[in-house]
Amino acid sequence: MGSFEYYKPESVAEAMALMEGSGGKGVYISGGTDVMVLIRQRKLSPGCLISLRNVRDLDYVDTSSGLAVGSAVTHNAIAKNDLIQKRYTALSDAASKVGSLQIRNVATMGGNICNAAPSADTACPLLVLDASVVIAGKSGERAVPIDEFFLGPNKVALGPGEIVKGFAMPAFSEKTGSAYIKHTRRQAMDLPMLGVAARVTIRIDGNEIGCRDALCTIDNISNVLKRFEDEKLVCEDARIALGVVAPRPMRAKKAETALKGKVISEGLFEEIGEIAASECQPRDSIRGEAWYRRDMVRVLTKRAILRAVDRVIRPDDTIWPERLW
Amino acid sequence: MEGLKYVGKRIPKKDAPLKATGQAVYIQDLKLPGMLYGKILYSKYPHAKILRLDVSKAAALPGVRAVLTGADVPNNFKFGFLKDNPPLKSGKVLSTRDEIAAVAAITQEIADEAVDLIEVEYEELPGIFDPIEAMKEGAALLHEETKSNVLKLPWKFVNGDVEAAKKESAFIAEDSYTTQWVTHCCLGTSGCVASFDVSNNLTIYSNTQIPSLAQNDFLEALKVFGLKNKRVRVIQNTIGGGFGSKLDTYAYEYIAILLALRTRKPVKVVFSREEEFLATSPRQPTITRISQGCDGNGKLTFREIEMVLDNGAYTSWGATTPSVMMVPISSLYKVPNIKYTAKCVYTNNTYSQAFRGYGNPQATFAIESCLDELAIKAGIDPVEIRRINANEPGEVTPQNFRITSCGLKDCIEEVVNRLDWKNKHGKRNGRGVGMASLIHVGGAARVYKSDGCGTIIKVDDNGKVDVITGSSEIGQGSETIIAQIVAEVLGVGMDDINVINNDTDVCPWDVGVHASRTTFVAGNSALGAAEKIKAQIMEIAAKNLGEPVEALDMQDGVIFSKNDREKNIPLAKVLRKAHYTLGGRMLVAENFYDPPNENFDQTFRGNLSVAYAYGTHGVEVEVDRETGQVKILNYIAAHDVGKAINPMLLEGQIYGGGLQGVGYALGERMIWDRGYLKNGNFLDYKMPTVRDIPPVQAVIVESDEQAGPFGAKGIGEPGLVPTAPAIANAVYDAVGVRIKDLPITPEKVLRALKEKEGQKV
Amino acid sequence: MKKEITFTLNNEKINIEADPKWTLLYVLREVLEMTGTKEGCGYGECGACTVIIDGQAVNSCLYPVMEAEGRSIVTIEGLMAKNGELDPIQKAFVDEGAVQCGFCIPGMIMSAKALLDRKPKPTDEEIKESIEGNLCRCTGYVKIIDAIKSVGGGR
């Protein structure tokens, strides 16, 4: 391994200037949990490393309108943030499941997203939370919708030298909930076999939400959904995103359309699961078989929506009852 | 056993403070003056001819001190159980872990870089990766000097008349079961430092589990290298995990020796994690055809098993695992008629070795899964069929094992009660319970000419005791167990005892840490030595106190008369009196304990072990019918251990073994795809994390084994033996599908569920 | 080109000439010869190299040493008191039988220490979270959890 310089700029402008000075051989490094691995594997031999860890203007969580998260915010900071847990739950779900605590203490969301691995855990939540990527470049800042940011495996819409400053998400109504389900073989230190995120905004025509108590029990899921149907719980808005089952993290747009404006019922759930499964393009790999991934998209899409709905109905309950599915 | 002061107590491990402060020195931490760093180049292909090997660029790299290839291995030296494995291969490679060149350099980085500069040209050859294919007529031979890819090993055991028993059986269950490669995942990787003195005597720092046998292997190697009449000293650093992985000598050790010989410097070879996955030897995959029968009352009538083991490209002791598979096959439950054959087959895969349980888990998976199937056919509760056929004390099994203590029935009942079997079994509602039992050697295992262990005890003028034992500490706690036994016998404190166990120059012979034998054999050896030294001490004390020896006892380092406590003398004073006197003496005792067990005869009969360990695991699972995921809700591991010398350490063996078993059952596997390892890293191998542990209870059943030290039997391996079938049986009870191929992945469960419901996958 | 960096290691200011390509683990083990911190994989997948940086458990094998500048780092060598007394978490690991081969233990203890410093009486969930990145092959984790719990008086 050849030696290299290690720069620690304190501002975005300084970082970009260093990158320009490196003649294209520099590599930005944030938490380093991916870059350092690539260097050790000799898959990457940078001319210099330009650290974004000390750039203060990348380290912010701003909740004044919607949610704005700096790219250098660590997964652990996101996972433990009260507002994110409450209002952008899919994101804290995902951030809290990345790697291990040691990894989450240093690994940043900016790094996770810019690597653009199909398995990036935070990608699906950002997709369902309508995030835009704030990018700083020589000619100033621009914002790109997250769905347009991922171009393919390890490819993102970043120009030479550009830096992702952060991610901006709109404010959602009170009746909005979201969830991310990471399907893994182990319960920690694992990459997802697939990941599913969902966001729903619901409308309840009646005054009282009777299905609340059903959700608190270990009642059969069919019965819970029956209650939803009886009480005419309408899904006003929906987003569904899938990870690992396509070359890039993707939205299941047909499934979203099929869900929007409908009264939630078991039949609808089955339909949505099937549609989402038909939209993905999973592959066989050592980490999972394609047929299984597709089938899990079907199953977990239903569960992610249900969990998102539950979070609207029971905003203060953080514990999801153990159910026999 | 009333009044025991040290034995039976939860005494912390003696070496724990050293390890908890980071002061223990593992092979990774060892640096010798002038030491060089070695690195090995492995084959790019699983089967190929080496057309050209050019090391000139590597040799020219500044800092490189030596580059070796197969041509540098003197006199065609080969090692391994069948001496079929050259430390550096030339001409042809047979697997992707084949070592073809090695470098020694002044830093690890330079060594790594140099290896990349070695140029190799190969001609790829078609490989054989399936043992069934390899056995076929006309299959290409891996080793041209052999007549067949099936190893010439005589694994066959027959008792009674299986064919006749089949005809008389009321019920028969028959099926095939398969198991996967799993690897030890020692957190400390393999490694050694080899160093020669001016007279070409070798000192090798190693994390071997078999110091005496390794010493012998290395001496043999030196002879072949032309170094006759030399000494070999094996020193063990703190060992970062064993589990059977270090039960043989390996190419990297011979490579380090050759590099050290070439450079005249100490050479260290320590595996990276990638190498640890690629180039250590996993548990062998098996294909098992099993058939078992019972009469109308559920009494077992016969057991017939044919097994094929993927041996890989070379042969280590792993090829002898069928000898231990025979233990459950012949003797788990009372089965009068037995037929067992096993074939170990060469393939272009990685070669297999010993792993905790030594074949027993593979055999028990088939036996105990099939036993549940038989119970279903016979309409008997799985508990009942096990009760009916459970082993008992006094029994002589078909292999002539003489069962002394046996707590199997107690273990079964512990599981039944703690799992609430009656209320939970047979519901088929997504939750289910399952159980499986085990038999394993519990009083050593005579697989070598000697099954012994030596102990030397010396006491110094200050009353401190040095116990020098042949047995090795690999984390299991033998050092502490031995100290407890000696403390108990002598009546001195734990802190007064120092255990020396890591240097063949000092320590007496021992066959190695295997077969769950250390507490039993090294414990008995230490016990005998302690009694001998105690007799010497008492004899001198008796003279000094003017009391008969029989009247004396020792506690807390003071010898006193049982008749008159006022008549006492501190141990240290006794020792000084013996030493500082005209014609004085130092107090030393030695004891070699070789258990009265038997090697197998030609028909594989003989009392392999002095005692046998039993156990039953029970598990409650919940199966997610939509995802196929299996969640363990409750896990009971009941083990007949004879006597727990140290319940705390013993529980550690059960918990640790149990979780390895859970990994084996539910997720761990090495994915070898046509000779290439696809998941050689911790991320993809899926060994369990703390998030994956089930709620577990370790239940200790004490059956007081008369031949064991203070009644103890071995417990090192049993913890993972019955785990997989217990879980497989519980999955069946939960959702009615039987997974016969380990590991029980969500994909397999879901596929089986869908097939059961007539859905296409 | 080596660069001079300064950081606090186990409460002592330390000044070294570091190659920018070095990891913190490399510096600890190879430069400072503090071998208590272990390398189990080199990829952040086992946690054996865990150290505490500014109060947080971090895999030192993935941590560029240049980032150590100005920070406070605690390793396993920093826990024992000057008089040789073990830190309560070290003592708990010894007394509860949480140590077998011991290779994972320094990292495991540092993860636990980072938790206990922040949360003296952690819940089971917090204990599991704290060591979910520390693989152990010997113990089945049961007694490790017991040990951490015992320090918090939670048993």
Residue-averaged pLDDT of chain C = 96
Task: Classify the beta-strand content of chain B into a percent band.
Answer: 15-25%
Please tally the helical runs of chain C, counting DSSP H or I stretches of 4 or more residues. 5
Number of domain units of chain C:
2
Uncertain segments of chain B are none
Based on Cα principal axes, name the global outline of chain C.
globular
Largest sheet: number of strands, sense, barrel closure of chain C: 5 strands, mixed
Could you tell me how far the N terminus lies from the C terminus of chain B, measured between alpha carbons in angstroms?
A: 60 Å
Distance between the termini of chain C: 52 Å
Helical percent range of chain B? 25-40%
What's the CATH topology name of the largest domain in chain B? Aldehyde Oxidoreductase, domain 4
| Rg estimate of chain B, integer Å | 27 Å
Describe the protein in words:
The complex is a heterotrimer of chains A (325), B (761) and C (155). Chain A has 325 residues and is an alpha+beta fold. Chain A has 3 domains: 5-51, 2-Layer Sandwich (Uridine Diphospho-n-acetylenolpyruvylglucosamine Reductase, domain 2), CATH 3.30.43; 57-169, 2-Layer Sandwich (Uridine Diphospho-n-acetylenolpyruvylglucosamine Reductase, domain 3); 176-313, Enolase-like, domain 1 (2-Layer Sandwich), CATH 3.30.390. In chain A, 36% of the residues lie in helices and 23% in strands. Chain A has a 5-stranded antiparallel beta sheet. In chain A, strands 11, 12, 13, 14 and 15 form a 5-stranded antiparallel beta sheet that branches. In chain A, strands 1-3-2 form a 3-stranded parallel beta sheet, with helices on one face. The longest helix of chain A has 24 residues, at 290-313. Chain B is α+β, with helices and mostly antiparallel strands. Chain B folds into 3 domains: 16-23 and 452-593, Aldehyde Oxidoreductase, domain 4 (2-Layer Sandwich); 31-126 and 190-270, Alpha-Beta Complex (Aldehyde Oxidoreductase, domain 3); 286-446 and 600-756, Aldehyde Oxidoreductase, domain 4, CATH 3.30.365. In chain B, 29% of the residues lie in helices and 23% in strands. A 7-stranded mixed beta sheet of chain B has the order 3-5-1-12-9-10-11, sandwiched between helices. In chain B, a hairpin with a 2-residue loop joins strand 26 (672-673) and strand 27. Chain C is an alpha+beta fold. Chain C has 2 domains: 3-78, Roll (Ubiquitin-like (UB roll)), CATH 3.10.20.30; 88-151, [2Fe-2S]-binding domain (DNA polymerase, domain 1), CATH 1.10.150. Chain C has 5 helices and 5 strands, in the order ββαβββαααα. Chain C has helices at 24-31, 88-95, 105-118, 124-131, 142-151, and strands at residues 3-9, 12-18, 50-53, 56-59, 72-74. The longest helix of chain C has 14 residues, at 105-118. Chains in contact: A-B, A-C, B-C. At the B-C interface, helix 1 and helix 17 of B face helix 2, helix 3 and helix 5 of C.
